[in-house]
Amino acid sequence: MQIEIDIEEWPDGNWPDLAKRTADAAAQVAPELANPRLVASLLFTTDDVVHQLNREWRGKDKPTNVLSFPMVERTDLVHLDPDEGAPEMLGDIALAHKTCAREAREKEISLEDHAAHLIVHGMLHLAGYDHETSDADAEEMEAMEVKALALLGIANPYTAHETE
């Protein structure tokens, strides 16, 4: 998969490298993402931009940490020939800086680790996984996220601070 990255008003960091490593980890747990014809865009942006996107496309008038906009149906994605055809736009992901940074502070983890989690989460949404459809789907998606993050050396974000 190819990733087009745009960075707007995020702190200095090697966000393109993080995005690539994270997308590769997501493709290891969701092999349909490893198709070389796929292209995804990833926008590191402000809370205001994500708020606007959330309001416009999801009808939710608030910022959020990550938004995903799939452009390929899951059945088409799974059957996409990796060797023949033009590049296929998988979808777009947008990360909101202030919300991500606040959540990372609250979880007492680095912004990089939290952004990696949210990128994996977004990639899985682009692949057609949805934690909002059922408890079983949520558990499947969470397990995939944990596995992908482990490949990156990042702790399970769902067990951190569970005792609080």
Automatic annotation (TrEMBL):
PROSITE patterns: UPF0054
Cofactor: record remark: Binds 1 zinc ion.
GO molecular function: metalloendopeptidase activity; RNA endonuclease activity; zinc ion binding
Record-level GO cellular component terms: cytoplasm
Keywords tagged on the record: Cytoplasm, Endonuclease, Hydrolase, Metal-binding, Nuclease, Ribosome biogenesis, rRNA processing, Zinc
EC number per UniProt: 3.1.-.-
The keyword rRNA processing is annotated on this UniProt entry: yes
Major localization class: cytoplasm
Binding site for Zn(2+): 121, 125, 131
Superkingdom to which the source organism belongs: Bacteria
Pfam families for this protein: YbeY
A GO biological-process term: rRNA processing
Stored InterPro entries: MetalPrtase_cat_dom_sf_prd, YbeY, YbeY_CS
Cofactor(s) the protein needs: Zn(2+)
Role this protein plays: Single strand-specific metallo-endoribonuclease involved in late-stage 70S ribosome quality control and in maturation of the 3' terminus of the 16S rRNA.
PANTHER family on file: ENDORIBONUCLEASE YBEY, CHLOROPLASTIC
Family listed: Belongs to the endoribonuclease YbeY family.
Name of protein: Endoribonuclease YbeY
Lineage, broadest ranks: Bacteria, Pseudomonadati, Pseudomonadota, Alphaproteobacteria, Sphingomonadales
